[in-house]
Amino acid sequence: MIRGVLTGFLTACLLAGCGVSHGPISGGTLARLNALAVTPEQGARIMEGRKIATRSYPPPSGVVRVPMRMDDAGLPRVKVSLNGRRHEDIVLDTGATMTVLDAALAVRNRLATAPSVRPEMTGVMGNESGMGAVIETMQLGPWRLDNLPCVVRLQRSSGGLDFLSSDFAISVLGFHLAQKHCSHLTLDYPRREVEFGFGGFRGPTSRHHAKASFRLKAGVPMARVSVGKMSWEAIVDTGSCFGVEIDQKLAQRLGYGTGGQAISGNFFLIGVGGTSTPEKAGVRVITVPRMTVLGSTFPKAQIDVMPGAPRIGSYFLQNYRVTFDLRRQLVWLEW
After folding, report:
1. Residue 269 pLDDT more than 90?
2. What pTM was computed for the model?
């Protein structure tokens, strides 16, 4: 039903004088997830043979536009209704293969679970197992989807003081949502709007634009970044709050094994797989003479050196109208 899942979600949370922990959800929450296991009646509606019968009902106009909110970490969020219940504010994460939902959110919206299905998720901060589940009805503006597969997290991060703590719920809409059902996906960061298209992308509307090809790898879009004679593939990852990111090994290959500006402060890196401080993760910023990314070249460009696969995150994308032309496998930037 659901195999391995890649999620590039990474956020930074400011917690002055506090600590962050990461561990399994409570036994009570796990019991409630198990109690939501698919019934025979639900199975008859959800399955066609051995496959989940996902159905998409786009509006006659062929396009859906919904408001996009930027959260405190600089990540794009949209309002989604699950199973006809209240609207949830969820990150739109092109760096995630599938939709991944927090356990408490899954219980609150009564998702149909498959407790024996435990897909492995690979995140920026490490790996963790989840639980397979199905959203029987999802409403995103006028667009409805039935029987959308997803993964429920069985881990949670929390932080604060002993007498006052809070959980950091990670819920993301994965790239499969657009890749399997749309002709294009646009995140218009300046206008705070997301567009799901179904009839084909007609091209940029601005005279100022650039484009680059991408390919799908593990279900997420990968585009090339180059510095000098070296180039590499990076996930175009709206679920990361940073800019252009590489790991320590790639930094060494570029000749920046050391140096740059070390990042420190009272904040934590939080993602699927765990948490870390910037000091422990060795986060630093290097400056390269020229960098080409998504069809444009930038002089004296900054690159973040940090854990995980190379990514192009929302801090870089935030000044653009970003369109994934899914039929031609092109990503467009407009400004």
Report:
1. no
2. 0.93
